[in-house]
Design brief:
It comes from Streptomyces flavotricini. This is Zinc ribbon domain-containing protein. It is built from two helices and two strands. By secondary structure, it is α+β, with helices and mostly antiparallel strands. It has one domain. A two-stranded antiparallel ribbon has the order 1-2. The longest helix has 20 residues. The protein is rod-shaped, with a radius of gyration of 19 Å. The termini are far apart. Bound molecules: zinc ion (ZN).
């Protein structure tokens, strides 16, 4: 599960990440951009960050799957 927080005061959205990380980014944003205001906005959750968004390595999962496939092929051919 990945999370991102939407600012209630402006169009800011934190990068996708673990809940604690997204929450910290949200609080940091409020502290720097909206000091004195109570935290607002909303949280968005997703099973995983959409490709091309956030700080997570979108290509890592693909690389891991390809590596696994290669291992299976190599072990199958080695027999
Ligand atoms: Zn804001």
């Amino acid at each position: 599960m990945t999370y991102r927080f939407w600012c209630g005061e402006c169009g800011f959205k934190t990068p996708w990440g673990p809940e604690s990380e997204a929450e910290r980014g949200h609080m940091d944003h409020y502290a720097t951009r909206h000091p004195g205001l109570r935290l607002g906005g909303q949280v968005e959750t997703a099973a995983k960050a959409p490709a091309g968004e956030g700080t997570s390595c979108a290509g890592c999962a693909t690389v891991a799957v390809l590596g696994l496939l290669l291992l299976i092929i190599v072990s199958a051919c080695g027999r």
